[in-house]
Amino acid sequence: xxxxxxxxxxxxxxxxxxxxVPVGTAVELREAVLRAAADADAVVMAAAVADFRPAxxxxxxxxxxxxxxxxxxxxxxxxxxxxxxxxxxxxxxxVVVGFAAETDDVLANGWAKLKRKGCDLLVVxxxxxxxxxxxxxxxxxxxxxxxxxxxxxxxxxxxLADTVWDLVARRxx
Length: 173
Prior knowledge:
By secondary structure, the chain is of the alpha/beta class. Helices cover 27% and strands 29% of the residues. It has four helices and nine strands, in the order E-E-H-E-E-E-H-E-H-E-E-E-H. The strands form three sheets. It has a five-stranded mixed sheet, with helices on both faces. Strands 1-2 form a two-stranded parallel sheet. Strand 6, helix 3 and strand 7 form a beta-alpha-beta unit. It is globular and about 65 Å long.
């Protein structure tokens, strides 16, 4: 397979044989993903993109002034890349996979997100203290637009990745 990895804040070396596209913002991420998705059979949106970003950026340090509170930070929405990719498929038969980190009502929120985003598969997992982020292990359920639920028991993240790719491959056949 030809693989393009669009990555921000990556601390690992680039994987061998992979085209890596570094990005720094959600807007740059959107542009790079749209370019890469144009000829992709499968798009896996594993990034945890923030829902909002500051409307303006300071060019330097915001210094503290005597007894003065800082100005409020105005936020604007980041683009919903998963929904955009899902709704405007670049290719017929393209498989789109999203991820949902949930803190409560994991499956109910996952099914609602799958419907709202319009992707083919949604990997849903519960997050919280000592769960998922920064851990080498994970537990998830992969929801399918066809109504399927594929649970993945707690274990190495590689096992979850294998399950996701098996589900993608079946949809590409």
